[in-house]
Structure formats: structure tokens, C-alpha cells
């Protein structure tokens, strides 16, 4: 789901459910994380990667700044996004 689609869906949820909707962004994040984590394989083309699924060695974790996810939604140009994803994937696979 692209950022514009996320915003459109959040607006739809607010309009159709009103105050009972709570936080549409939190709901979208929950769904996105659940789908990413439930895949057997890591979806390297996903717009948000969750660190828990990436199986990064503990020695490579930052003890001061705990990163939960990598978000590529703000990279609008698809070619730039794909290049960044490939580079981050390369960095994560280095030992």
C-alpha cells in the first residue's frame, strides 16, 4: 500500500466508522506488520520491513536505539525506492 493509498483508506475508515474507528493509521500499521510477519519468506519488495522478521544477529543490534522497522513509503520514486531496498538488504546480509 502506497502512502497516498494509506491516507485515502484512513479517510475512508474515519468517514464510514466515525469516532468508533479510533486510529486508522494504527490499524493500517497493525495489518501491515501482521502480513509482513506471517509470510514464510521475507517480502523484500514490501514498503515497510519489520526488524523482528529480518533475523538480524544480536551483535548487530544497537543497544541505544532500538529500530522496529524500515519504512520506504516516503521514497516516492519507485526506482529510487527499489535501489534503496536493495542496498539496505545488502547491508543487512553483510556479516
Q: How would you sum up this structure, described in words?
A:
The chain is globular and about 45 Å long. It has a two-stranded antiparallel sheet. The chain has helices at 3-17, 24-38, 51-54, 78-93; strands at residues 48-50, 69-71. Helix content is 53%, strand content 6%. The chain has one domain (3-93). It is built from 4 helices and 2 strands; from the N terminus they run ααβαβα. With 95 residues, it is mainly alpha-helical. 1% of the residues are buried.
State mean pLDDT (0 to 100 scale).
Answer: 88
Termini separation comes to 31 Å
Number of strands: 2
Number of domains: 1
Strand order of the largest sheet: 1-2
Can you write the helix and strand succession as a string? HHEHEH
Unreliably modeled segments: none
- Classify the helix fraction into a percent range: 40-55%
What share of residues are in beta strands?
Answer: 5-15%
Largest sheet features = 2 strands, antiparallel
**Tally of contiguous helical segments:** 4
| Secondary structural class | mainly alpha
Sequence-ordered SSE layout with sheet pairings:
Blueprint: H1 3-17, H2 24-38, E1 48-50, H3 51-54, E2 69-71, H4 78-93
Antiparallel strand pairs: 1-2
Notable characteristics:
4 helices, two-stranded antiparallel ribbon, 2 strands, mainly alpha, 95 residues
Can you summarize this structure?
It contains four helices and two strands, in the order ααβαβα. With 95 residues, the chain is mainly α. The chain has a two-stranded antiparallel ribbon.
